[in-house]
User: What shape does this take?
Amino acid sequence: MTKTDQDDRLNIARELELQLADFWHDVDTNWGRTAADFYTEDGVFEASGATYRGREKIREFYAYRIGRGPRIAAHTFSNFRAEVISATEAKTTWYLLLYAHDGEPVLPSAPPILIALASDHCVRDDDGKWRYKHRKFEAWFKGGVETTTLKT
Assistant: This one.
């Protein structure tokens, strides 16, 4: 791998990691009001309890989440890895640790309700922004409070 290739990989990996942080920040502090915009028009969000196909279905899920009432969630991630395929395509993996409960803060602390291996297929859209073409969660540990699922 040349220095240029390595620099490109590092730059793209960092861009994608920052985007992931922005995505979860929106979900946790803005109820995911712009979360669907992080996906391609035909993007797929494969959650632990349901699969949402297309940006509008993903938007519907986050609207449903808002309509359920107060809920505190902290989506944390670790072990971010990126495989850069090209300047416009990458695959990433990372671990999601989800702490969540219905209600207003301050809520009692508990272990994460979900620990999952996440994989993203990312593409750079025509506007230059990276978007998720496909996101999949593979639950490894689950317990306590149920995750939010819109049955389709």
